[in-house]
C-alpha cells in the first residue's frame, strides 16, 4: 500500500472517450455549458467586459476628479506595496496624467507604517498641499484614517477589492465591485478596479494598461474567470509585445522571452515587483513601471532583481528558524501554527507562512516580535478548509489590526495576547476541522486513458489558459503499470518512469518523488494524478505527465523470490518498521532474528512491512498470517528446496520402475539408481521419491542398501502413501508461492484474503 500525500476529490473516475469530449467536460466543470459561454471562454474579448459606469459612485468620482483637474487641485494616489498595488498605482497615475491632473503617489512603508492608509500619512498628505486622495488596492478597512482625513478636510476616494466589513468607511466615495449591486462581477483585482475606473474617466478602453492589469491580477491570485480572464488574456498578449520601457527591462532580468504566460508572471515578474516592497519602499517598482529612459529602466530592473535575490535568502533563513520552532513545540502547533520571533523581516512572512502551510498542511500565522512596541506583526496563510478571514473576524478583539482574504491575512497582535490567540485558533480548528482537512486538497478534473494523452490534447488544453484561481490547470487521473522506474537528478530526489496501460505508454516525471523508487512495483498497477506537459529533446516533442501525487490502495507484494542476497535490496526498501517471519527455518539478518509465524499470528497486531523468509507447510497457514497481520507491504524473500520435485512422477513412471525392480529381483539403491537415471533421463531425487512411496506402501523391502519386491503385498493406491501426499502438498505450495508468475501469485493471494474457505484444495488456473 502506498498512501497518497494529498486528499483527492473527483466527480467520476470513468475515463472520457474523445479529445473533444475532454474539452467539453473540462468546460462544464468550470460552469461553462452553453455554446455562447464556451465561445466566450475560449475566445475572450473586450465585448465580454462590463460597463464601468455600473460601479457605484463612478459618476461621483469622475466629477470630483475632473473638478480637481480643472482647478489645478493636486491629487495623491495612495497605493499598496505589493505587485497588485504597484500596478494599480501606475494605472491610476498615468490615467490622471493623461487627464491633465497634477498628481503624485504615496505608498506606505511596510515596516514603519504598515498596511493601508494610516492617520499620520493622511496628515502628511494634507500638509504637503493635497486635498484629494485616491486609494488603489487598499482603503476599505481604513476607518480611523478616513475619520482623520474628513476632520482635516481631505477628500478620500477609495478604490479597492478586499473583503468588505460590516460597515464602510465614511469616505467621499467608494469604488468597489462588492458594494456595487449592479456590477455583476465581484472578483476584480485591485488593478482591475483601477483599470475600470480609468476606462470610465478616459472615456475609451485604455489598452495601454492591459500589460499592467495582467501582472497585478495574476500576482494577486484572484479568480481567473469572468472579467479577470478577459483582462488577463488581453494583457498577456500585450505583455508579449510591450513597449513599456520598464517591463522590457524587467522581462530581460527575469529571462522571459517570446510568449509570456501566467507562470512567467507568477514566478518571474510578480515576485520581483513584490520583493521591493517586502524589503523596503515599493516606490522603485513604481518608478520602473513608469520609466521612459532605457538606461534608468535597466538600472532599476537590475536593482530590483538583486533585491529579489536578497529576499530569497532571507526567506530561506526565516523558514528554517520557523520550522525549528514548530518542531520544538509540536503540541503547541498541533492544529494551527502560530510562530513568532524577534528580528524577522515582516515583509517576507507571507512567503514563509506559505512554505509552512505546504510543509505541515495546517493554517500558519508567522509574526515578527517588536518588543519595544509590545506587539507582534505579520502574515497568515491557510489551508482550503480553514477560512482565515471568517475565523479571524470571529476573534477580532484579539487583534490590534486584522484584514485579508479566506486564505491570506495580515495582522498585528498585542504580545500579551499572543498565547491566547494561539490557543483560541487551535480550539477553533479542533472544533471545525477533520483529519482529512489537514491534507492538501486536489480536485481532479477528469480520468483519462493513457491512449488519450496526445500533443493534440495538450494543444486543446492550452485554449483554457490562462490558468489560476477558479480556472486551475487541468489535473488528470490515470492508472497503469510503472515501467523502467529510475531515480534522476543530481541528488537522486526525483523520479522518472513510463506508465503503461493497454500497450500504450506515457513518460511520468515526479519532482521530489525519488523516495518512491522502492515503493513502485513494475508488476503492480498504480493510480496517479498529474498535469500534462510537452517534453522537447533533440527537436522531438512528446507528451509527459508531471506527477502531482500517487497511490496504491491494495496491499503491495514485492517479489524477491529466489534472490540469495535479497536483504541488500529489501532492507533499505522497507525501512525500519519491519517484521521478519519464518515458518520452519529461523533467519538472522543484520542482527535481527526472524520470528516464528505462529508467534506473529498469535500476537495478531497489524504490521506495516512483512518479510517472509521461507515457505510454509500449508497454504492456509500462509494466508492466515497475511490476514492476521494485515501488512501494507509484503516482501517474498524465500527460496525453494532444490530437492523438491516440481512435478510428481506419472503413474507410468511408477509402473516402469516397479516392473524394472521385479525384473531385476533385487535393486541396489546406489548403483541401480544411477543406471535408471542415465537410462530414463530422470533425476536421482525422483527415483528416491518413487522408491520411498513403494517402501511406505510395502511394495518393496529395503535392507542394507538393497531393495527387493514384496510378493505378498496388498495393492493400494499410490496417493495413500504419506510421502506422496507430502510431496503433492509441497509441489502445490511451491507452484503457487514460488514458481508462479507475479500476477498469478497476487491474484491467488487476493482471492485467498477475500475467501473464508480453505485454500488447500483450491484449484488455481495455470498454477
From TrEMBL:
<comment type="similarity">
    <text>Belongs to the RecJ family.</text>
</comment>
<dbReference type="GO" id="GO:0003676">
    <property type="term" value="F:nucleic acid binding"/>
</dbReference>
<dbReference type="InterPro" id="IPR041122">
    <property type="entry name" value="RecJ_OB"/>
</dbReference>
<feature type="domain" description="RecJ OB">
    <location>
        <begin position="444"/>
        <end position="549"/>
    </location>
</feature>
<dbReference type="Pfam" id="PF10141">
    <property type="entry name" value="ssDNA-exonuc_C"/>
</dbReference>
<keyword id="KW-0269">Exonuclease</keyword>
<dbReference type="Pfam" id="PF01368">
    <property type="entry name" value="DHH"/>
</dbReference>
<feature type="domain" description="Single-stranded-DNA-specific exonuclease RecJ C-terminal">
    <location>
        <begin position="556"/>
        <end position="749"/>
    </location>
</feature>
<dbReference type="InterPro" id="IPR018779">
    <property type="entry name" value="RecJ_C"/>
</dbReference>
<dbReference type="Pfam" id="PF17768">
    <property type="entry name" value="RecJ_OB"/>
</dbReference>
<dbReference type="GO" id="GO:0006281">
    <property type="term" value="P:DNA repair"/>
</dbReference>
<dbReference type="InterPro" id="IPR003156">
    <property type="entry name" value="DHHA1_dom"/>
</dbReference>
<dbReference type="InterPro" id="IPR001667">
    <property type="entry name" value="DDH_dom"/>
</dbReference>
<dbReference type="GO" id="GO:0006310">
    <property type="term" value="P:DNA recombination"/>
</dbReference>
<dbReference type="InterPro" id="IPR038763">
    <property type="entry name" value="DHH_sf"/>
</dbReference>
<dbReference type="InterPro" id="IPR004610">
    <property type="entry name" value="RecJ"/>
</dbReference>
<protein>
    <recommendedName>
        <fullName>Single-stranded-DNA-specific exonuclease RecJ</fullName>
    </recommendedName>
</protein>
<dbReference type="Pfam" id="PF02272">
    <property type="entry name" value="DHHA1"/>
</dbReference>
<dbReference type="InterPro" id="IPR051673">
    <property type="entry name" value="SSDNA_exonuclease_RecJ"/>
</dbReference>
<feature type="domain" description="DDH">
    <location>
        <begin position="75"/>
        <end position="217"/>
    </location>
</feature>
<keyword id="KW-0540">Nuclease</keyword>
<keyword id="KW-0378">Hydrolase</keyword>
<feature type="domain" description="DHHA1">
    <location>
        <begin position="335"/>
        <end position="430"/>
    </location>
</feature>
<dbReference type="GO" id="GO:0008409">
    <property type="term" value="F:5'-3' exonuclease activity"/>
</dbReference>
Amino acid at each position: 500500500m502506498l498512501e497518497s500525500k494529498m486528499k483527492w476529490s473527483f466527480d467520476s473516475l470513468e475515463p472520457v472517450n474523445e479529445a473533444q469530449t475532454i474539452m467539453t467536460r473540462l468546460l462544464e466543470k468550470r460552469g461553462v455549458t452553453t455554446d455562447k459561454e464556451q465561445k466566450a471562454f475560449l475566445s475572450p474579448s473586450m465585448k465580454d467586459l462590463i460597463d464601468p459606469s455600473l460601479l457605484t459612485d463612478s459618476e461621483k468620482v469622475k466629477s470630483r476628479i475632473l473638478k480637481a483637474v480643472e482647478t489645478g487641485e493636486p491629487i495623491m494616489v495612495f497605493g499598496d506595496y505589493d505587485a497588485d498595488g504597484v500596478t494599480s498605482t501606475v494605472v491610476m497615475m498615468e490615467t490622471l496624467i493623461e487627464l491633465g491632473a497634477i498628481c503624485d503617489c504615496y505608498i506606505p512603508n511596510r515596516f514603519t507604517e504598515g498596511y493601508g492608509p494610516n492617520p499620520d500619512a493622511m496628515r502628511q498628505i494634507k500638509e504637503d498641499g493635497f486635498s484629494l486622495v485616491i486609494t488603489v488596492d487598499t482603503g476599505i478597512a481604513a476607518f480611523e484614517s478616513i475619520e482623520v482625513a474628513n476632520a482635516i478636510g481631505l477628500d478620500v476616494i477609495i478604490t479597492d477589492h478586499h473583503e468588505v466589513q460590516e460597515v464602510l468607511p465614511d469616505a467621499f466615495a467608494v469604488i468597489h465591485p462588492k458594494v456595487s449591486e449592479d456590477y455583476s462581477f465581484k472578483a476584480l483585482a485591485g488593478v482591475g478596479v483601477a483599470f475600470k475606473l480609468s476606462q470610465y474617466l478616459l472615456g475609451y478602453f485604455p489598452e495601454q494598461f492591459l500589460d499592467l492589469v495582467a501582472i497585478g491580477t495574476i500576482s494577486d491570485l484572484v479568480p481567473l474567470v469572468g472579467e479577470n480572464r478577459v483582462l488577463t488574456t488581453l494583457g498577456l498578449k500585450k505583455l508579449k509585445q510591450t513597449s513599456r520601457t520598464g517591463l522590457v527591462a524587467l522581462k530581460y532580468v527575469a529571462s522571459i522571452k517570446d510568449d509570456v504566460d501566467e507562470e512567467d508572471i507568477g514566478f518571474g515578474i510578480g515576485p520581483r515587483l513584490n520583493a521591493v516592497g517586502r524589503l523596503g519602499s515599493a516606490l522603485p517598482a513604481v518608478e520602473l513601471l513608469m520609466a521612459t529612459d532605457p538606461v534608468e529602466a535597466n538600472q532599476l530592473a537590475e536593482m530590483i532583481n538583486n533585491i529579489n535575490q536578497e529576499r530569497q535568502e532571507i526567506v530561506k533563513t526565516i523558514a528554517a528558524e520557523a520550522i525549528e520552532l514548530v518542531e520544538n513545540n509540536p503540541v503547541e502547533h498541533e492544529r494551527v501554527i502560530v510562530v513568532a520571533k524577534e528580528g524577522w523581516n515582516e515583509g517576507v512572512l507571507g512567503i514563509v507562512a506559505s512554505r509552512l502551510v505546504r510543509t505541515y498542511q495546517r493554517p500558519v500565522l508567522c509574526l515578527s516580535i517588536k518588543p519595544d512596541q509590545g506587539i507582534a506583526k505579520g502574515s497568515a496563510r491557510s489551508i482550503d478548509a480553514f477560512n482565515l478571514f471568517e475565523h479571524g473576524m470571529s476573534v477580532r478583539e484579539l487583534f490590534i489590526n486584522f484584514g485579508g482574504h479566506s486564505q491570506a491575512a495580515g495582522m498585528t497582535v498585542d504580545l500579551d495576547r499572543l498565547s491566547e490567540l494561539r490557543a483560541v485558533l487551535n480550539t477553533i480548528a479542533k472544533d471545525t476541522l477533520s483529519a482529512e482537512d489537514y491534507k492538501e486538497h486536489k480536485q481532479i478534473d477528469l480520468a483519462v486513458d493513457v491512449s488519450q494523452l496526445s500533443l493534440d490534447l495538450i494543444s486543446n488544453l492550452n485554449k483554457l489558459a490562462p490558468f489560476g484561481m477558479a480556472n486551475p490547470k487541468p489535473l488528470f487521473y490515470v492508472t497503469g503499470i510503472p515501467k523502467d522506474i529510475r531515480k534522476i537528478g543530481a541528488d537522486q530526489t526525483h523520479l522518472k518512469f513510463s506508465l503503461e496501460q493497454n500497450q500504450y505508454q506515457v513518460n511520468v516525471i515526479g519532482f521530489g518523488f525519488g523516495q518512491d523508487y522502492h515503493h513502485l512495483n513494475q508488476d503492480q498497477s498504480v493510480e496517479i494524478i498529474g498535469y500534462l506537459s510537452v517534453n522537447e529533446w533533440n527537436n522531438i516533442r512528446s507528451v509527459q505527465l508531471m506527477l502531482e501525487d500517487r497511490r496504491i490502495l491494495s496491499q503491495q507484494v514485492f517479489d524477491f523470490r529466489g534472490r540469495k542476497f535479497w536483504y541488500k535490496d529489501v532492507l533499505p526498501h522497507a525501512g525500519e518498521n519491519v517484521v521478519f517471519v519464518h515458518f520452519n527455518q529461523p533467519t538472522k539478518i543484520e542482527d535481527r532474528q526472524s520470528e516464528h509465524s505462529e508467534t506473529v499470528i498469535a500476537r495478531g497486531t497489524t504490521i506495516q512491512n512483512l518479510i517472509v523468509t521461507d515457505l510454509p507447510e500449508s497454504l492456509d497457514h500462509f494466508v492466515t498470517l497475511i490476514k492476521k497481520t494485515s501488512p501494507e507491504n509484503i516482501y517474498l524473500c524465500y527460496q525453494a528446496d532444490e530437492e523438491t520435485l516440481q512435478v510428481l512422477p506419472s503413474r507410468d513412471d511408477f509402473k516402469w520402475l516397479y516392473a524394472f525392480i521385479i525384473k531385476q529381483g533385487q535393486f541396489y539403491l546406489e548403483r541401480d539408481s544411477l543406471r535408471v537415471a542415465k537410462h530414463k533421463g530422470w533425476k536421482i531425487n525422483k527415483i528416491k521419491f518413487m522408491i520411498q512411496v513403494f517402501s511406505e506402501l510395502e511394495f518393496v523391502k529395503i535392507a542394507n542398501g538393497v531393495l527387493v519386491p514384496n510378493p505378498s503385498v496388498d495393492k493400494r493406491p499410490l496417493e495413500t502413501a504419506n510421502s506422496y501426499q507430502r510431496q503433492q502438498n509441497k509441489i502445490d505450495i511451491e507452484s503457487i508461492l514460488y514458481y508462479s508468475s507475479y500476477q498469478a501469485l497476487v491474484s491467488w493471494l487476493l482471492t485467498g484474503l477475500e475467501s473464508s474457505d480453505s485454500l488447500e484444495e483450491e484449484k488455481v488456473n495455470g498454477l
